[in-house]
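Collaborator request, handled under Task 6.
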Amino acid sequence: MKRLLLGISLFMLTVGSANAALFSRLGGQAYYDSALNITWLANANLADTNDFGVTGINFNGTMAWDKANEWIAAMNSAAYLGASDWRLPFMLDTGAAGCDLAYSGTDCGYNVQTKSGDTVYSEMAHLFYVTLGNTGAFDTSGNPGSCPGFPNFCLTNSGPFSNFQAGYYWTGNEYAPDTANAWYFHFGAGSQYLELKSNSLYAWAVRPGDIAAVIPVPGAIWLFGGALALLGAVRRRSR
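Structure tokens returned to the collaborator:
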């Protein structure tokens, strides 16, 4: 029994650390990210089922960059979940010339900068690499990683989010040297790069700060339930 209890404890610590920064809000409709001080929609592809009256969104929820910003504006007009300051996720262009694909520590490629002190370099990269603990398609030396492949590729942990796509998501940032492009993050590979604004990618809404001033409930609690139930059953059986 001691071994079983130890195993349960280790399981709880593992799942807890992966999502330690995420706190459930509004009955699980949103998650507050305490590391970035932003709130993510729980539905990572809300546009697939709610277009807020915006036309031109594809059947799977993907859309052009300008259309994504229009969708965000419509969401704010509707005061979705009581908030009117939704936006696309942020990334910081470090000013390096061009977008030279790299494997560590830049704004373009794999294993990109995520956060240093109070400076956030990429909200989606931080969620992917740090909060959820995923690894990219390439390691920092440029060697292929160990992603399991189809269907989710490197997105082995999607946390408490629903409709999380292992695909391309728009950031809210244009590429300054050529504004026909905007930055994206690819959750299937863990890469950050450029894409023509006219192409169709997914859009995920976030907002600054905490959406509700309530007592925090860990976003990973959905994982703890089964472990706690098992622990209770073990205790009852031991009696």
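The cover message to the collaborator said: "The CA atoms of residues 23 and 216 lie 6 Å apart. The first helix runs from residue 2 to 18. Please let us know whether this matches your experimental observations."
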